[in-house]
Q: What sequence folds into this?
């Protein structure tokens, strides 16, 4: 009989394959990711709203937002994006079920010290369709809503969902399970077909990784939301290495990373911006935990910066002594169009917000209050559309 159990969640399958030991209990559970964190609440509220779409239900956005501490306008966008996606993808999910909880044992593996462990795959599928044609399984589809702002592919998560679906229903007559990832904020989706060989191969991958629990660790972007993140020295070393590598690359002491080779100048700039943004996030996450030793007798720490904006409502009588005209007021006071539109929407009944925003914009336009301020912006156009001076040739980077 197995002495212990290794539980794998589809949502953590990509991390598990990269770092099998992430399945171990955390050393400091009190430091692990708070299930009530803003990120967790945002994901839960977005999924609850999206789950209404396949069944034609109208979500109570205000109630859901209140329960999770979310923005009802943002949830309204998620609902709209899910509805648009469903117009295309609904055909793949006849008789769709949502939030389907499935669990299955994949078998036993031997761990270090000859300890025997049962490997269990367990999780909730956002979307599952398994319609029958007579007695035969006509189709088998699994889907996952992505409500976050990133656009990262989680192929192992989709494969894990497909594996659970096959254990529950068997292989369909089509010979392949359909897996769909839907990035709602990006208006994008990815569809894969997983045949029996792919499903069996993925189960073998999970079992092989399970045998490495306690033996193998791996750090990388998958560490985000890992329960070991606060105490994992390997992850901390990866963060430090990433910062050093970026600095070396920018200073020219190291070769350009392989993924940047062969790309155009424009693509290189885009990739470098992403690298810088990711390193900034890594540094911010580290500073949340404590100082960063810079190795030169100094350290980065989180200090306190106090901003001192002026309250217009409280200081209007003083401001009036300085500002002599509406034109001068324009120069010193900035009105947030987004916040003004949200305020207008908040003062009308639910469902009337979009109309209120359009009416406000119309009135502001008629009053001449919406300014058009020209300014330079980089654009990519066909070379034949360039006029004037001969353009500087950048083309492909020379990597020697």
A:
């Amino acid at each position: 009989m197995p002495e212990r159990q290794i539980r794998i969640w589809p949502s953590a399958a990509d991390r598990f394959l990269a770092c099998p030991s992430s399945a171990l209990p955390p050393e400091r559970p009190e430091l692990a990711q708070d299930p009530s964190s803003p990120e967790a609440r945002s994901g839960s509220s977005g999924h609850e709203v999206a789950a209404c779409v396949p069944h034609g239900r109208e979500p109570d956005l205000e109630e859901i937002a209140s329960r999770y501490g979310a923005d009802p306008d943002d949830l309204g966008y998620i609902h709209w994006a899910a509805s648009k996606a469903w117009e295309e993808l609904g055909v793949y999910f006849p008789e769709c079920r949502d939030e389907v909880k499935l669990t299955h044992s994949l078998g036993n593996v031997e761990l270090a010290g000859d300890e025997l462990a049962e490997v269990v795959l367990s999780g909730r599928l956002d979307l599952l369709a398994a319609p029958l044609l007579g007695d035969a399984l006509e189709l088998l589809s699994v889907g996952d809503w992505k409500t976050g702002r990133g656009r990262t592919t989680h192929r192992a998560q989709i494969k894990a969902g497909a594996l659970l679906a096959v254990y529950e229903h068997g292989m369909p007559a089509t010979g392949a399970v359909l897996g769909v990832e839907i990035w709602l904020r990006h208006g994008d989706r990815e569809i894969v077909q997983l045949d029996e060989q792919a499903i069996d191969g993925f189960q073998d991958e999970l079992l092989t990784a399970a045998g490495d629990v306690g033996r193998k660790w791996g750090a990388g972007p998958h560490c985000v939301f890992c329960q070991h993140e606060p105490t994992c020295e390997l992850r901390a070393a990866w963060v430090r290495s990433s910062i050093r590598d970026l600095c070396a690359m920018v200073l020219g002491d190291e070769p350009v990373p392989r993924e940047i080779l062969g790309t155009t100048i424009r693509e290189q700039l885009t990739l470098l911006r992403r690298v810088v943004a990711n390193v900034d996030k890594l540094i911010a996450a580290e500073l949340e935990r404590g100082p960063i030793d810079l190795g030169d007798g100094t350290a980065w720490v989180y200090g306190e910066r106090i901003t001192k904006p002026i309250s217009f409502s409280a200081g209007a009588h003083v401001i009036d002594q300085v500002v002599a005209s509406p034109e001068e007021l324009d120069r010193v006071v900035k009105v947030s169009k987004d916040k003004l539109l949200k305020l207008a929407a908040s003062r009308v009944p639910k469902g009337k917000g979009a109309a209120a925003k359009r009416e406000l914009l119309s009135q502001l336009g008629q009053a001449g209050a919406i300014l058009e301020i020209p300014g330079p912006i980089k654009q990519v156009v066909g070379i034949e559309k360039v006029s004037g001076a001969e353009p500087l040739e950048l083309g492909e980077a020379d990597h020697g």
